[in-house]
């Protein structure tokens, strides 16, 4: 695959959405074709699963299976073809969110998630082979109390956004664990700054990794 796969992660309200469009424009300005997508979602089927995951109450295993089912469709229908064309794929959340939210936040078994990741992002045949995973993950790291203040009044909270701060402390711990397991992939951004400063750091991280030209 000749494309570039970048995911954007962080707790709700960390500032991902604010910077994804700017990242897309920066790559387009360098002549790259950008596929902008999100999870759960990115295909008609996965968007239907998204509605269930975000609105219906269910146990953590059901949630994990639904987000991975959505991811399977998204990887096959959108991400793999885009990378094969040479696109820059910018994805608003990917598997790290499952480890953070279903693993860290909801307490679902980390090892089971790792097995699902191998199956869903591999060949699906259980064979050892390269996984479809981001080249870079931009992690917007923000204290949950600050994120809660930003979100208050900004939009109607969905099932996750209405969780207490303690839930997001566990989600953040899940992200930290994922970073510790694969530190090279992560660009951890201090999101507790002005939007301009955060954007400067996002650009800096993508330049340092050799993906954006100065
Ligand atoms: N650096 C920042 N400082 C203050 N407020 C911010 C900052 N970045 C984003 N916001 C605001 O915080 C809210 C959540 O940002 P958003 O980008 O939607 O977060 P996410 O996509 O990570 O949930 C929005 O109202 C946005 O305008
Ligand atoms: C991708 C993914 C998202 N989520 C959650 C995290 C978010 O709260 C929600 C998706 O919301 P998000 O992408 O942040 O959308 P918006 O900014 O429009 O609210 O789904 C999971 O619980 N597991 C996952 O695997």
Automatic annotation (TrEMBL):
One function term, GO molecular function aspect: dTMP kinase activity
Catalysed reaction equations from the record: dTMP + ATP = dTDP + ADP
Enzyme nomenclature, EC number: 2.7.4.9
Enzyme class, UniProt record, top EC level: transferase
Positions in coiled-coil regions: none
CDD domains: TMPK
Record's keyword terms, sorted: ATP-binding, Kinase, Nucleotide biosynthesis, Nucleotide-binding, Transferase
Source domain of life: Bacteria
Pfam name, any one: Thymidylate_kin
Entry-linked InterPro entries: P-loop_NTPase, Thymidylate_kin-like_dom, Thymidylate_kinase
Stretches assigned to the Thymidylate kinase-like domain: 8-200
Residue numbers binding ATP: 10-17
Family: Belongs to the thymidylate kinase family.
Function summary: Phosphorylation of dTMP to form dTDP in both de novo and salvage pathways of dTTP synthesis.
Protein name stated in the entry: Thymidylate kinase
The species this protein was found in: Rhodoferax saidenbachensis
């Amino acid at each position: 695959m000749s494309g570039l796969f970048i995911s954007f992660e962080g707790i709700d309200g960390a500032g991902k959405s604010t910077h994804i469009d700017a990242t897309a424009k920066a790559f387009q300005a360098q002549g790259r074709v950008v596929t902008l997508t999100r999870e759960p979602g990115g295909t008609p089927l996965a968007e239907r699963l998204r509605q269930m995951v975000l609105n219906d109450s269910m146990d953590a295993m059901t949630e994990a299976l639904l987000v991975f089912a959505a991811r399977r469709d998204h990887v096959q229908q959108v991400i793999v073809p885009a990378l094969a064309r040479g696109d820059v794929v910018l994805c608003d959340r990917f598997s790290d969110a499952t480890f953070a939210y279903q693993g860290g936040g909801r307490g679902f078994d980390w090892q089971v998630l790792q097995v699902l990741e191998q199956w869903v992002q591999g060949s699906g045949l259980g064979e050892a082979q390269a996984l479809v995973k981001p080249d870079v993950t931009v992690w917007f790291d923000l204290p949950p109390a600050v994120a809660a203040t930003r979100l208050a009044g900004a939009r109607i909270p969905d099932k996750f956004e209405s969780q207490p701060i303690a839930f997001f402390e566990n989600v953040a711990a899940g992200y930290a664990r994922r970073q510790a397991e694969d530190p090279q992939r992560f660009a951890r951004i201090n999101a507790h700054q002005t939007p301009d400063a955060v954007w400067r750091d996002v650009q800096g991280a993508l330049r340092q990794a050799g993906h954006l030209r100065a």
